[in-house]
Design brief:
This protein is α/β, with parallel strands linked by helices. The chain has 11 helices and 8 strands. It has a single domain, classed as Vaccinia Virus protein VP39 (Rossmann fold).
Length: about 280
């Protein structure tokens, strides 16, 4: 059995002010700095490298019909008409949380692990000019690409920030909706991420996330594979444990809106995986 990952988490300082570019001071912009031992930093760097490389070839990927893009599977023609080939090519999600989120004009939406921004651009159409969409991603090249695409598409109601979901660069009680598309599977601190989601939501706010989960334990070699980790597989949480974790973070009205078998490949162990789209609410008071 591979050596268990060991790490120490240092709680963030929420007393620091948060700037528009996503930095909240006190080391917030460098989450790796809180990893004091073990190989968690190596995983973080591997995730950055994998998605940074994807951002570099997103335009070409978007034009290739043979590429296994989530934009080909989960988004309507109307939604795809809102984005560019580069945005489509950067998509790696396992669902379409926006389609379940019932976004209303004027709402503030936060997308964790926003990548190239596909869900942000679709959400921004629904919030309208009076609303706001904030994308947060830790990969510099993804953030840069998303910002460039926002300028090209004149999407003035979208802001992209560099940051980590375990230390969301956003003020508390400031957003109506949090969305995410298989980004939480990339975190070793899922309970911290859920607590951060709770923190930034307004009372009565909600989250809608599409997330890969484990129904049965994966083989040990898959669990210990850095490659499968950065693909959002090895870090997938146990289904029942994840749902309990959400309730423990303080959310109520937890509901599985959709559950699908994993379609990521032909390997026998993939029958242990499923994709959930989950709705949960922060209590109104």
């Amino acid at each position: 059995m591979a050596e268990a990952r060991k790490f120490v988490f240092v709680s963030p300082d929420y007393g620091s002010s948060i700037t528009e570019n996503g930095c909240c001071g006190s080391g917030c912009c460098d989450f790796e700095a809180v990893v004091l031992s073990g190989n968690a930093k190596d995983i973080t760097n591997a995730v950055k490298q994998r998605y940074g490389a994807l951002a570099e070839r997103a335009g070409k990927r978007g034009l290739e019909a043979s590429e296994n893009k989530s934009s080909d599977k989960f988004y309507s023609e109307e939604e795809l008409s809102l984005i560019s080939d580069e945005i489509a090519g950067a998509s790696t999600g396992v669902g379409n949380p926006v389609s379940f989120a019932d976004i209303k004009p004027g709402e503030t939406v936060l997308d964790l692990g926003s990548g190239g921004g596909i869900d942000c651009f679709v959400a921004a159409e629904k919030t309208g000019s009076l609303g706001r969409v904030i994308g947060v991603d830790m990969t510099p090249r993804m953030v840069s690409s998303a910002r460039e695409n926002a300028k090209k598409l004149s999407a003035s109601n979208i802001t992209f920030k560099r940051g980590h979901m375990e230390q969301i660069p956003q003020d508390e009680t400031s957003v109506d909706l949090v969305i995410s598309n298989n980004a939480i599977a990339l975190s070793e601190w899922k309970h911290v991420t859920l607590s951060e989601m709770y923190r930034v939501l307004k009372p009565g706010g909600r989250f809608v996330i599409s997330e890969r989960v484990v129904i049965e334990a994966l083989p040990e070699n898959i669990q210990d594979s850095t490659h499968e980790w950065v693909e959002g597989v090895a870090g997938a949480a146990d289904k029942e444990r994840f749902l309990t974790m959400i309730e423990t973070a303080g959310f109520v009205g937890v509901e599985v809106l959709e559950e699908r078998a994993d379609t990521g490949g032909d390997e026998e162990w993939r029958s242990s995986l499923a994709t959930l789209t989950i709705l949960a609410n922060k209590p109104a008071g």
